[in-house]
Backbone:
C-alpha cells in the first residue's frame, strides 16, 4: 500500500496536467468539434481527480451526466450549426491579448491567496467516508428544499428548451 | 488525502482562468457555452476539495456539487435550444452578428 502511494500520486499529477492541456485545447482549437472532444477529455480528467480524492459518487455522476448527456447535446448542436461556418471565419475575436492578460492576472491573484499552506484542515473530515447512502440521506433530510427547487428548475428548463427549439408552424 | 488541498485549489483556479479566457475570446456561441461548462467544473472541484478537507459536515460540498451539475445541465439545454432557434432565424452562430438589441 505505502510503496504504491508515490506512483499513484505521480499518476494523479499527470492526470491533472493532461486535463489542463485539454482545457487549453478547448479554448484555442479553431475547429469547434475538436474543442468539444477536448472538453470530453477535461471532464473525464476531472472525474479521475474526484476518484483520487475519494468522491466516488461525484465521479460517476460526472461521467454519466456531463460526458453522457451534456456533451451529447453540445455535439448535436455543433453538428446542426456547423455547416454554415466555413473554415475562414475566425474562431476568435480581436481580444486575444487583453483577454490573455486579464485571465493571467486573475489567476495570479487567486494563486497568491490559494497557495498558503495553512488551511484549517480537520482530521475528522479527512477520515470521514461519504457513502452514497449518506448523500441520499442529506438530499431528503437537511437539503430537501433545495432538492425540490432544483427538480422544478430542471423540469422548467427542459420544457422551455423544447418550446424554444420547436419549429414555428407558420415559418416552415 | 493523496493531493494537498492547495494544489487542488490551484488546479481549479487554472481551469477557471482558462474558461474565462475562452468566454472572452471565442466568437462562436457554442464555444462560449463550452467555456461556461469549464468554469462550472472548476467551481465543482473547489466545492469537493473543501468538503473533503476543511468542512465541518463532509456531505455538504458534494451535495452542492450535484446541485451545480444540475444547474449546468439546465443551462446547457436552454442555451443550446436558444442557439438552435437563433440559427434558424438569423442563420449565424457568431456572437458578433447578433446585434439586434444593440443601439
Residues:
Amino acid at each position: 500500500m505505502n510503496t504504491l502511494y508515490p506512483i499513484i500520486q505521480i499518476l494523479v499529477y499527470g492526470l491533472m496536467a493532461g486535463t489542463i492541456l485539454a482545457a487549453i485545447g478547448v479554448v484555442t482549437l479553431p475547429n469547434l468539434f475538436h474543442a468539444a472532444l477536448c472538453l470530453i477529455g477535461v471532464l473525464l480528467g476531472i472525474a479521475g481527480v474526484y476518484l483520487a480524492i475519494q468522491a466516488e459518487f461525484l465521479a460517476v455522476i460526472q461521467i454519466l451526466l456531463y460526458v453522457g448527456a451534456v456533451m451529447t447535446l453540445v455535439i448535436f448542436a455543433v453538428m446542426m450549426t456547423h455547416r454554415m461556418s466555413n473554415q475562414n471565419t475566425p474562431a476568435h475575436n480581436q481580444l486575444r491579448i487583453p483577454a490573455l492578460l486579464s485571465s493571467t492576472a486573475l489567476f495570479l491573484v487567486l494563486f497568491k491567496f490559494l497557495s498558503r499552506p495553512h488551511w484549517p484542515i480537520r482530521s475528522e473530515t479527512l477520515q470521514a467516508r461519504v457513502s452514497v447512502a449518506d448523500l441520499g440521506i442529506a438530499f431528503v433530510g437537511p437539503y430537501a428544499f433545495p432538492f425540490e427547487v432544483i427538480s422544478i428548475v430542471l423540469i422548467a428548463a427542459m420544457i422551455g428548451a423544447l418550446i424554444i427549439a420547436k419549429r414555428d408552424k407558420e415559418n416552415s | 488525502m493523496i493531493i494537498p488541498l492547495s494544489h487542488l485549489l490551484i488546479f481549479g483556479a487554472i481551469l477557471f482562468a482558462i474558461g474565462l479566457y475562452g468566454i472572452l475570446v471565442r466568437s462562436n456561441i457554442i464555444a462560449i457555452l463550452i467555456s461556461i461548462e469549464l468554469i462550472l467544473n472548476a467551481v465543482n472541484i473547489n466545492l469537493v476539495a473543501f468538503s473533503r478537507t476543511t468542512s465541518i459536515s463532509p456531505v455538504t460540498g458534494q451535495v452542492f456539487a450535484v446541485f451545480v451539475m444540475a444547474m449546468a445541465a439546465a443551462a446547457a439545454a436552454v442555451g443550446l435550444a436558444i442557439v438552435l432557434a437563433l440559427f434558424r432565424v438569423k442563420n449565424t452562430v457568431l456572437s458578433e452578428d447578433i446585434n439586434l438589441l444593440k443601439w
User: Anything to note?
Assistant: DSSP finds seven helices and no strands in chain A. Helices of chain A lie at 5-28, 32-52, 56-81, 96-114, 123-127, 132-140, 144-165. Chain A has a mean pLDDT of 87.
